[in-house]
Sequence to fold (100 residues):
Amino acid sequence: MTPEQARQQYNSQGFVFIRGALSGAEVKRVLKAFDRAAKNDSLYDLLHQDEVFVDMVDHPAIFPVVRAVIGEDVHCAMPMEASGKPTPNRAAAGTAIFAT
Fold:
């Protein structure tokens, strides 16, 4: 997938599907960790639930597509309360990847 194709897919569909980005073992690991986080009502704080979510942030098959869509200045952030703690029960807000 070229950077232009990634941008076009994101702009038209709101997401980019990267066929074959994760191995079968990686998919199983992500699903297991996601299910565990959901069971613990911790979907708002995925990066702190399992190392697999941190690994996905800069995964070599995913990050180049993120950079193609967002640009070079990519940041990863979680919604925070004024106290600096992750905002609880905000699964919809989740982790955002954005450019400044």
The first helix runs from residue 3 to 13. The longest strand covers residues 74-77.
